[in-house]
Amino acid sequence: MTDTNSAAATGKLPAAPRALRATASALVSLALTFIGLTAITFVIGRVMPADPVLAVVGDRASEEAYQRVFLEMGLDRPIWEQYLTYLGQILTGDFGTSIMTTRPVTEDILRFFPATLELATLATLIGCVIGIPLGVWAAVNQGRWIDHCARVLGLAGYSAPVFWLGMLGLLIFYGNLGWVAGPGRIDIYYDGLVEDPTGVILFDAAWHGEWEIFWNAFSHLILPAGVLGLYALAYIARMTRSFMLDQLGQEYVLAARIKGASEFSVIWRHAFRNVLVQLITIIGLTYASLLEGSVLTETVFAWPGIGQYITTSLFNADMNAVLGGTVVVGICFVGINMLSDLLYRFADPRART
C-alpha cells in the first residue's frame, strides 16, 4: 500500500494537502463573508427611508428630473440585479461618487480612513501596554487593593459615556491645563507642509524628519486616543484578569511552585503563555471594534476619520459614501479576525494540527 493510500486509510493527510485544504477553506469562508456583508449592507441601504434621488436632484426638482435620475441610478431594476451591478463595481474598487464631496468614494475613503487607523492603533497600544500588566497584577493580587482598583477602573472605562469623557478631557487638559492641543488632527498652519503618501501624519512626518509637525500631530492625537484607550484598557484588563485567575488555579502552576520556580517564571513563563493565546483574539476584537466604533470620539474631537465621514454622509442621504465606508470597515473587521486566527495558530502549536 502506498503512503497516500495509507494516509487515506488512517484518515490523515500529508502536511501539504492539509495546508492547501485549510487555505481553500479560508478563502471560501472569506468570499462568503464578503458576499454576505455586501448584500446585507446593500439591502439596508436600499430599504432606509432616505431617498438617494432627492439627495441628488434636491427637493425642488421637477418630476421629469426626478424620474431621469431614478432611471440613471438603476433604481427601477429588481434589487437583486442592482446588488449584482453594485458587487461588480466594488470588486473593481468603484464605490461610486459621493454626493456630499463630489469625489469618488474610494478617494474619500483613502483620505479619511488613515485618520481612524491612526487613532484606533494608538488606543489599542494604550490598552495593551497598560491593560495587560494591570490585569495580570490584579489576578496575582486577587482581593487586594490593586485588584479592587483594576476592577473599578474597568467598570469606569466600560460605563462612562465616550462623549462625556471626551468633553471632560478637553475641558481639563486642553482648556484649563493646556497640556494637549485641541480638536482636529493638526494645527491649520501645519496642514499640507509635509507629503502624506500613507495618510498617517505621525508616520509621514517622522519619515520626512519633520519633528515639529510630528509632535503637533501627536499632541492632537493623544487625548482622543487616550479616551478610546481607556475603553480598550478596561476590556483588556478585565479579560486578562479573568484568564489569569483561571490559569493560576491550574495544577501545573502549583507543580511549578513546588519545584522551586520563581514567582516571575510561574506568572509570565507558565500562566501568561497560556493566557496569550486567548488574549490575541481579545486584542483583535478590540482593535476591530475601535476601527468601526469611534464615531462619537471623532465627532467630539472633530477628528476627520471614517466614522465621522459615514455619519455625515448618512445625514445627507449620501448612500454611496455610507455603503462604501461600511463595506470597507466590515472588510477590515473580517481581515483582523483572520489575522488573529493566524497569530493564534503561531502562538499555540496545538492549533496547527
Automatic annotation (TrEMBL):
Its main location: membrane. GO terms for cellular component: plasma membrane. It comes from the Bacteria. Residues 113-344 form the ABC transmembrane type-1 domain. InterPro entries: BPD_transp_1_N, MetI-like, MetI-like_sf. The chain crosses the membrane at residues 22-44, 119-140, 152-174, 213-237, 271-290, 321-344. It is found in: Cell membrane. The keyword Transferase does not apply. It is a multi-pass membrane protein. GO terms for molecular function: dipeptide transmembrane transporter activity. SUPFAM superfamilies: MetI-like. Gene3D superfamilies: MetI-like. Keywords: Cell membrane, Membrane, Transmembrane, Transmembrane helix, Transport. Belongs to the binding-protein-dependent transport system permease family. PANTHER family: D,D-DIPEPTIDE TRANSPORT SYSTEM PERMEASE PROTEIN DDPB-RELATED, DIPEPTIDE TRANSPORT SYSTEM PERMEASE PROTEIN DPPB-RELATED. This is Peptide/nickel transport system permease protein. It comes from Albimonas donghaensis.
